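Before the break, one more example. Copy the sequence into your notebook; we will annotate it together after we see the structure.
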Amino acid sequence: MDFLRLTPRRTAAGLLLAVACTSGHAADPTEPAFRALYRELVETNTTLSAGSCTLASERMAARLKAAGLPAADIQILGPADRPKEAALVATLRGRDPKAGTVLLLAHIDVVEAKRADWQRDPFTLVEENGFFYARGASDDKAMAAVLTDSLVRYLNEGFKPRRTLKLALTCGEETPDSFNSVRWLLKNQPDALKASFALNEGAGGELDADGRPTVLQIQAGEKVYQDFQLEITNSGGHSSQPVPDNAIYRLSAALTRIGAHRFPIAFVPATRGYFEWKVKHTDDPAQQSLLKDLLANPQDSAAGERLWLTSKAWNSALRTTCVATMLDAGHAPNALPQRARANINCRILPGVPPAEVQAALAQVIGDEGIAIQPVGEPATAAPLPPLTDAILDPVRKVAKTIWPTAALVPTMTTGATDGRFLNAAGIPTYGLSGMFHDAEGSHAHGLDERIRVQSLLDGRRFLHEVIKLYAMQPG
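Here is what the structure looks like once it is written out:
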């Protein structure tokens, strides 16, 4: 998962709810089995360099088979030329075919981790000081383990859902330019992920300084990820005889212009709700003044510049951003460059076509000699999934019993999850985990990744009950 969270408060009546943190509940006899499943999944290396998503998929499939899921309803799917990157798709069939399907999505691949850099072995699950530590302990094997465990428990309980539940544990979310299961399945096995809507990573919850839950998040939208390559070529020559037309200088000038460019500010419903709430709750007069100006006039250029300097997270939430991330130029220290390339990474606001951003970059560069092309498959602008009562009511009902003092708020991520592929394919996808983090966060993608033990167990309880409610809806 690659994103920053924005946790807005929606202004529509009924979205905010009061929530209490219960001090505890009766011991769960199924918890040891869950811990064993979680450990097995986390300790199965699924990095691109040395791991195997296929092995992790097979191990989770074995647990579902042992719980009684028919072999015919368990598939290990992936391209033949990528034998270590297969996904698991498991189906618990519903009683009413007309009620539709709920897709439970989590990726099981993880970011690389170098043992020498970590305090602990990144591929050994360690419980210490109230946290689990390991690569993938949070992103995203926590959710993958919880969803798999829920299907096992439904089978053991004899639960007969009205709607079909479909579990997809996928590969390549962290390295989509190499391979991505969701994108491959949508293209090659479209029925495998077909669903009325999907639950995914992308939102959790926030704890205050005293460890109390304050905000429960539900993600309803994300920015679109798209890389563009800039490239310029010329004839080069001997470095002792410089010429005015130097590929590196021209590319550098283009990058400088991109660095100075500001895409327009725009609100989507989630971000407008957040900033309307923030303007009422900030104790900083300068922030309050800035937000009032932006809400009154998003195109206020002076406010836009103040935003850029005030908060990188706010700036990213309110505009498309494009930034240079990689350079490659020249072929020898004593030769004029024959080629210069740069990668421009863009995070595009929902509803903005990537082709429109490409055209804007070309205009900003203003040099027809510099080619600009999308890297990989062009991204597709995805619609925002609607936050209907059918989606929100089960969340409200279960959250009220676990965290009665937290507010339920929608979020928009400024990075990317596999939800971008599903939303673009017409499958509304919501980030929902119920797993709370403190201000330090999970260290996802970084050193000593972690998740609070209580947060994982509370999220397990929350998702198990919420999914049951979704499974019994008429569709």
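The chain has 13 helices and 19 strands. The domain at 31-205+411-471 is CATH 3.40.630.10 (Aminopeptidase). Try to locate both features in your own notes.
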